[in-house]
Design a protein that fits this description.
alpha/beta; 8 helices
């Protein structure tokens, strides 16, 4: 498939990438989980032009988010059916933490916009981690959760490509996890940022795969070999 970043590359960029790809894809880990990053109402907004809804949803990604939601729904359904661990992150501030952002704002726990979008809601058996920084690993118990589950690879979807997704993948790879971003399952409010972040991750940091490859990983090793 055509990669989303291709339209932004100059001819020089293409030649450098062709001659100097600095990393070889590592593929999935021995045991993989699906990580759904910050699929919260404020980051999604409504399926209409972003600039028309920024007062109500300051972080809205609008149509870009809604294009990714059906992909996420299919991956979630497949992962749950296969018994793959499903882990959600939520960027949220509670009053009991004493942090100033818990008093007001779209990520305050008291604000309905901090909740996970209903179309990709958690189900019984899913795991939730809460965070206050871009990365899902920083100051959270994600590493402990993954260690207990025996997970060493993460299929990653959610919000936003250039922010929390990228930050989580950088830190996850540094900690030894095999991070894989599902291209159609992540999104950003600025398309150039989305494309550049995906290119950077594929070129330097982790694997960027499509939905079909992610489905094969969920289905198991035999399916991965057939899709290769």
């Amino acid at each position: 498939m055509a990669r989303v970043w291709e339209e932004f590359l100059t001819q020089e960029d293409r030649e450098v990438a062709r001659r100097r790809n600095l990393r070889v894809p590592h593929g999935p880990g021995r045991k993989t989980a699906l990580l759904v990053i910050d699929m919260q109402v404020t980051a999604i907004g409504e399926d209409r032009p972003i600039h028309e809804q920024l007062e109500r949803y300051p972080g809205a990604c609008g149509p870009h988010a809604w294009a990714a939601i059906p992909v996420q729904q299919r991956l979630l359904a497949a992962a749950r059916a296969a018994g793959m661990p499903v882990i959600y992150s939520k960027h949220v501030f509670h009053p009991h933490t004493g942090l100033a952002k818990s008093a007001s704002g779209v990520f305050a726990a008291s604000d309905p916009r901090s909740e996970i979008q209903a179309e990709v809601a958690m189900q019984p058996g899913d795991i939730l981690l809460e965070k206050q920084t871009p990365s899902c690993f920083t100051f959270t118990n994600l590493h402990m959760i993954l260690s207990e589950l025996g997970v060493d690879g993460l299929l990653t979807v959610g919000n936003s490509t250039s922010g929390c997704v990228r930050a989580s993948c950088v830190e996850g790879e540094a900690m030894g996890y095999k991070m894989m971003v599902v291209e159609e399952g992540v999104f950003d409010r600025i398309q150039m940022s989305h494309a550049a972040a995906l290119f950077d991750m594929q070129f330097k940091i982790c694997d960027v795969i499509d939905e079909a490859a992610a489905m094969a990983i969920i289905a198991g090793p035999d399916a991965v070999q057939k899709s290769a």
